[in-house]
Amino acid sequence: MKKIFFGILSLSIGVMLFSACHKLDVPASSELTPDAYPHTEAQFNSASGPVYIALRSDFAVSYWFTQSCSTDEAVLATFGADWIDGNKYLELHRHTWTKDNAWVNSTWVYLTNMIGIANQTISVFKTAPAGSTKNTSVAELKTMRALAYYMMMDLYGNVPLDTLYGFTAVKTNATRSQVFNYVESELKASIPYLKSTTGTATYGKPTTFLAYSILAKMYLNAQVYTGTQRYNDCIAACDQIINSGLYSIEPMSTYLQMFYPTNGPSSKEFIFAIPFDASTTNGNMFYARYDLNRNLGIKYSYSGSTAGGITDPVMNLSSGSGLVNSKPSGPRMTTAEFYANFNDPNDIRNKQWLTGLQYWSDGNPIMVSTTNVGYNQFYSGSEPAGSYVYQLNLTPLTLNSSRLGPGSFDLGKDEIAWNTGYRNIKFLADYTNPISRNQNNDVPVFRYSDIILMKAEAILRGGTPTLGATALSLVNTLRANRTTSAALTDLTLDDMYTERSKEFTWETWHRNDMIRFGKFENTYGLGKTNTDTYRRIFPIPTVAIQTNSKLVQNPGY
Questions:
Q1: How confident is the model at residue 31 (pLDDT cuts 50, 70, 90)?
Q2: Distance CA 133, CA 135 (A)
């Protein structure tokens, strides 16, 4: 988000971003004291800044990888010795992670850090002057803490409920149901004090509609989390947002722009988004680094006229030049199984993918110059260093994509390997930033289309229809803004799953969906065959247990 972060980036306070790991009230050094802060709304906003910075800090990296690379949505394979990284990607993909997996650990640290900072700030706010500004600020912080606890409950199931700053005794795990009840009660208590407005003033901050969005997501998954379905409660929470009249579904013409570097408060669908600014150093997202095929960052042998300095607006390339000043690594892709959900040729959401033969914006093919052995490491001819020119062609990732033998997670170390896998460009490469991989694209956490599909699914699963809508009519309302194909005439749970896969690709919700739809144990990708159901929650990391002897490891680990 460009220059809009309610003063957070200009903080003068020195709140330490502590990594709690086990207890969430580690002492922190800060200039934030009752004598100095806060009194005015601007001071409350500034003092709250570290909580939002903490959310931004690792959402698009550790949290993203843990949620998405544990599904068929995304896989980061190895290329020779590249990207082995202690097998942390392989373990996520094949569901063989342990309590020592690096992503499992860093995501735990990320979320407990955010909770700890919220605890500290709420503690300081207790002594601030009473009034509506204080009430709203505390409610916002509690909502952010509830969001972090929801994310922890979703990932780890049974986590300690540490909510009092300065309380030094470590706690054992609360059950998943207890965490669920805590988050629900915190959100309900906060809603009367949260703002119910949209626009720049509340962009990136909790509103009543974020609280209802979290509640809707919890209620939709309540059967998974607690063993008790709560579909009518999900519908009621969705209706609170629908009845506000403040949100609408973006039409086909602007769907893709929702995720561009120029996105922000003007989006009709964003209920809560994380603002990113490429000029800052903390918590930048660089999707293009992982998602763009690496050949989209090298020089090409361009076939065709170069008159006028042709520039491709999608891949952000000028003919014969690289991707601004940063070369993408290009290791992240989707599986053939996930891409199969994109089965409607008239759907705008297909355009978030780079697939097959690649062309410049003027229709000329993108040509790549290499050598025979550079193209194919298994070349056995007489001229390994001989010139080889080919049109860039991205091929699907299947079980047999590796040429190094059955079961290999290594795609190889050549052009064939690097061009394996369809690549997602939903969060379009940021050509406005010429000096680094950082991007300006804000990242949505909750969108209005999710509210529509959550309500539809809750009705389809047995909830009571409201406001004259049916599950089918709600899904068709969304589809009318995404495809020119005919409306659906009936609706199954598999249809709903496909629709959610299309709509929320790369937005960290697919693991949540796969578990709820009973597909998390499916076979897919590069050797994912494990069907252990206990892996629907991650283990408590070793580092957390080492520092808190009262923690009990999740079953199966």
A1: low
A2: 5
